Amino acid sequence: MASNPPPTVEISISEIERFQKLKEVFISKYLSPPDFFVRAPGRVNLIGEHIDYCGYAVLPMAIEQDIVAAVASVKTQVLQLVNADPRYRDFSTNINDIHIDNSKPAWHNYFLCGIKGIQEHFKLTNLNGINCAVDGTIPASSGLSSSSALVCCAGLASLTAFKKTLSKLELADICARCEHYVGTEGGGMDQSISFLAEEGTAKLIEFNPLRVTDVKLPDGAVFVIANSCVEMNKAATSHFNVRVMECRLAAKILAKSKGLNWKQLLKLGDIQVELKVSLKEMQKIVEEVLHPEPYGRDEICQFLRISLEELRSTILSQNTQDVTSFKLYQRAMHVYSEAARVLQFQKICAEVPSDAIQLLGNLMNQSHTSCRDMYECSCPELDQLVDICLFICSDVMVTSYTGHQEAWGSHQWVWKNRAVVHIDTSNLWEEVAEVIVGRVSEVAEMCQDRGLKVKFSKVLHVPADSILVEDLQTGMLQSWVGIVIKETLASDRVVGQGGNGFSFFRKDRSCRAKGN
User: Fold this and answer.
1) Is 2 within a domain?
2) Do residues 476 and 469 make contact, with C-beta atoms less than 8 angstroms apart?
């Protein structure tokens, strides 16, 4: 339960290779074994993009990829951090004098956030130090919340080292607030799902106060997470915070236009609560009050009757002080429509109509369109990935962006009755063709065993863009040769992109095996 503290589990380190390797890293650095390990998973958000910091519910689920830390308390007052990945530098500081320089993004800053948050919550002083070794399997800057998982891992590590107890709800709330030390103005979804996730269910997460509800997904729904391979550290630029400030400014202008105490209101969700209207009615109000053209600082100051200095000091974040143009209409329309989609998603999962997966897919497609066009948090690579997947799996494929602004993140797809085959090949085109024929035969046999008809003939060379798929040897997502096969439910036969056949792609050229 959310009111319980995080569970403690006894494990045999020697039987788990990853933990054993991290233990070895710890010993090589500190010359003694760790006292305990802590773990925090990453997450994927099914729907509800960029609305948690506006006060609205979101619907994420945790993923297997995680951050793990090996930890030991020491008698000095030194905090020492080492990362198992040699790309990240070691770090040490006085644990009783933690300073976080948010002008210079660094991995250890997120860990410092978690420790500082626990220190301040309990008002702890004169603490003993901590030795820590960290290992992560969440791709960095991929929109799967590696940074927040690191904060949560640090919060849990320091809580244990300092011999304190908190519920999972309390930990999630503390870690959400203390991540602001790195300069980002997030809303709490990432930290909440990291602590409150449970196997076999997604979670509807609501805020003010923080609370969670299980959301059981329809049978037959499978979520595939693919990486657009475009990276962005949200703390490294102002882009993430600009969107937060645009929502904040939209809330204040909407509040003032309706005679509310706009100085006390920060979130778009607050305006709906004060006005006691529906989300649909809020969209109508946005249409009435805000204009689609970008707002300049002078126009905002004139409407709110404040000076530019007041705008900077009382509303804008530190790294958005010099922004001169704000799209308020688009951001508000996205937030209110996305909040409505979250509630629709939950309702469909609860009622489970016969076309539940298709309905969920439609909502996720609408979410991506809004993220791309109204919130402008997609990028060409992600849009291309979406277009390819929708084209390949047009009957039941559904997509949704997840991650941070400008699609510095991943994509998730729901597939039903779908077979996906990836091919491991050499660089020789002749060998590629041979492997494809062999794999197609295997797939054909599998499909025939299930009573499905398979049609394909000769391989034809045609130019095409590459597609991002998973490399089975390295686990990395990159452009390489792959086959995608799907079942068309209406005709009960196997087809692929471009008609009744199979399509596969490679970096420099493409082939298509057309069906008869």
Assistant:
1) no
2) no
Report the distance separating Cα 19 and Cα 84, nearest Å.
Answer: 11
Confidence of residue 104 (pLDDT cuts 50, 70, 90): confident
Q: Cβ distance 486 to 392 under 8 Å? A: yes
Question: Is the distance from CB of 400 to CB of 386 less than 8 angstroms?
Answer: no
Domain of residue 20, residue span: 13-41+62-187
Catalytic residue among 190, 214, 270, 322: 190
User: Are residues 358 and 482 both part of a single domain?
Assistant: no
Rounded-to-integer distance, Cα 38 and Cα 8, Å: 9
User: What's the pLDDT tens digit per position in 198-223?
Assistant: 988 999 999 999 999 999 999 888 77
Annotated active-site residue 52? The verdict is no
Q: Total domain count for the chain?
A: 3
For residues 333 and 379, membership in a common domain is answered with yes
Q: Angle 380-392/356-373 helices, nearest 10 degrees?
A: 160
CA distance 206 to 483: 40
- H or E element that contains 420: strand 418-422
For 466, the token pair is 């590459």
**Two tokens, residue 99:** 């300073």
Q: Taking the complete model, does pTM exceed 0.90, yes or no? A: no
Of 388, 414, 440, which residue is a domain's last?
414
Residue 393: the pLDDT is: 57
Q: Is residue 57 part of a domain?
A: no
Q: Tokens standing for 315?
A: 């509303």
Six-digit token pair at 436?
């494809």
Last residue of a domain, which of 414, 438, 457?
Answer: 414
Distance CA 375, CA 328 (A): 10
Residue 205 lies in a domain: no
CA proximity to 90, closest of 17, 28, 18, 20: 28
Tell me the one-letter amino acid at 301: C
Task: Report how far residue 360's alpha carbon sits from residue 364's, in angstroms, rounded to the nearest whole number.
Answer: 6
Is the Cβ–Cβ distance between 40 and 62 less than 8 Å? no
What's the length of the chain? 516
Question: Does residue 400 come out as left (phi exceeding 0), alpha (psi in the -120 to 50 range) or beta?
Answer: beta
Dist CA 90 CA 146 (whole Å): 18
Q: What residues form DSSP beta bridges with 79?
A: 93, 130
Comparing C-alpha atoms, which of 441, 377, 432, 440 is closest to residue 404?
377
Q: Specify burial of residue 145 (Cβ count, 10 A radius: 0-12, 13-18, 19+).
A: buried
Task: Return the closest-CA partner of residue 177 out of 197, 166, 194, 192.
Answer: 192
In Å, how far are 393, 425, 448, 505 from 482, measured between CA atoms? Answer: 15, 9, 21, 6
